[in-house]
Amino acid sequence: MQPQPLVPEQPEDHTGPSGVAPRPEAAPAGEGGAGAEDGARPEPATWPGLPEPVRDRIAELAAAAVAKLPGTDVPRQLRPVAKFAPAKRAKLGGAALLAALGESSQFRTAVIEWLREHRTDALDPNVTDSVAAAAAAVLLGESGAAGRVRLVAKNAEENALRAERDAALARAQRLDAELAQVRVELAEARQAAENARGEREGEVEKLLKRLREQGVQLRQAKDAAQTASTEAERGSAARADEIAALTAQLDRERQRVATERARAERAAADADIARQSAREAREADEVRLALLIDTIDGAVTGLRRELALGARGARPADMVRGASTGTGQGGKIADVSTLDRYLALPNVHLIVDGYNVTKTGYPELALADQRDRLIHQLSALAARTSAEVTVVFDGAGVLSVPASVPRGVRVLFSDRGVLADDVIRNLVAAEPAGRPMVVATSDRAVADSVRGGGAHPTPSAVLVSRLSRV
C-alpha cells in the first residue's frame, strides 16, 4: 500500500468479523460517501491535534500491540520500534506509532483486533476515565470522538489553570511571609538605632561633664601659676625651679584639656551623625552628613581663628540687599598649576566627564580601552593627591561593565534614558555647601550649570595634561 498525504488508501479486503466498519469506496458528494467515511473513523489530519494525554494513551496501546502483531501487519517504519524495550517503546516511538495509525488502516485494524483479544478494557468508550474513553473512541472512529477529545482538552486546560492558581497562591503566601520578616527586621534595626543614639548621648554628656571638670582644674592651675609667679618675684632665685615646674605642669594641663575638648567635639559629631541616621534611615543622608562633617572639620582651625577675633554673627553690612559676595559661583580652572592647587585642598571632590575627557586625550582608542586608560590614570592621581575621584560615563551602548576598578576611583554609568551630564549635575547638587569640587569637562552647558552649584569647572585638555604627568 502506498499512502497519500494525510488520507490513507482504501484497504483491498473487507473486515467483517473484527467489528470495524469497512471503508467504502469514495462516493460523489451528496450520496453519503463522505459522511460514511467520517462516521467510520476520524480523519488522519486531526491526529496531530489530539491532546497530549490522549496521544500518550493511544501510543501506549499501540506500543503494547506492535510487539505482538505478525510482521506482515506491522509497517516497515515500525519494525525497529517493535524491538524496543517495553518501558521505552511508547516514549521513544510514540510519534511513529501515531503516524502509522493515522496513515495505515491495515495496521490500525490489526491493533484494534489485538486489543479486542488481549485488552478488552482499552476499547470501552464508556469508561469513567475520560482519557481512556476518548482514546477508545478515536481508535474505533466513533462519531462522538471529537466531543470526548474536546472534553479531555478542556479538563487538561482546567488542571493547568488550577496548578497555576495554586502556584500563584503559594508565591503570594511566601511573599507575605518574607514581608513579615522584613518588617520584623526593620523594627529591630530601628530599635538598635534608638539604643545607639541613647548610648552616644550618654557618652557626650559624660565627656561634657569631664570637660567642665577639666575647666575647673585649668582655672585652678592658672591661679596656682599666678600665685607661684608672684611668690617667685618676691622670693629668691631658689624658687625659679619651682616656677618652671609649675609652668610645665600648666602646659601639660592645657594640652590635656585641648585633647579632651577635641575628643568631646568628635563625640558630639558622632552623636549628631547617629541621630541623623536614626531619623532619616537612608544611606545617602549618612554619606552627605559624613562629607559635611569632614569639610567642617577641615575648616575648624580657620573658623576658630576668626571667632577668636570676635567676628560673631552677622554684621549690618552683611544684611544689605541688592548685592552678593559671589561665593556661590565656582571659578574656572584654566591651567594645570591652578588645578594642582585645587586638588591639594582638603576633602576636594574631582568629578570627571568620562567620554568628554577620553575623546579629548586619546580618541583613537576603542571606548573600552579609553575607559580603562582614564580609570587607571585617575587612580594614580587620587593616590598622589588624596582627592575623592568620581568618573561618569554614558551607560547607553555599554555592553560590559568592568567587574572591578582600581582603588580610589568611583566609576558610574548613567542609567538607560539618563545622560551622563545630568548625573554630573546631580553629583554636584548632592554635595554639601562649602565643599571644594572640581568638574573636568569641555561641555559649556555642563560647566555653566555646575559653576552655579559652587563647583570649579576645568577643560578636559587641562586634566589630560595633568594626567600625562602622573
Description of the molecule:
The chain has three domains: 40-143, no CATH class; 186-281; 336-467, Rossmann fold (3-Layer(aba) Sandwich). Residues 1-45 and 308-313 have low confidence and may be disordered. It has 470 residues and is mainly alpha-helical. Strands 3-2-1-4-5 form a five-stranded parallel sheet, with helices on both faces. It has helices at residues 33-40, 52-66, 79-82, 86-103, 105-118, 130-140, 145-234, 240-280, 283-298, 300-308, 336-343, 354-361, 367-385, 420-430, 444-452, 460-467, and strands at residues 349-353, 388-393, 409-413, 437-440, 456-458.
What fraction, in percent, of the residue positions are helical? 55-70%
CATH class placement of the largest domain: Alpha Beta
- Reported CATH architecture of the largest domain: 3-Layer(aba) Sandwich
Biggest sheet record: 5 strands, parallel
Strands, total number: 5
- Straight-line distance between termini: 88 Å
Estimate the strand proportion: under 5%
**Total domain modules:** 3
C-alpha Rg (nearest Å): 46 Å
Q: Indicate the mean pLDDT.
A: 75
Gross morphology: elongated
Following the backbone from N to C, one meets helices and strands in this order, namely HHHHHHHHHHHEHHEEHEHEH
Low-confidence stretches: 1-45, 308-313
Structural class: mainly alpha
The order of strands across the largest sheet is 3-2-1-4-5
CATH fold-level label of the largest domain: Rossmann fold
Total helices: the number is 16
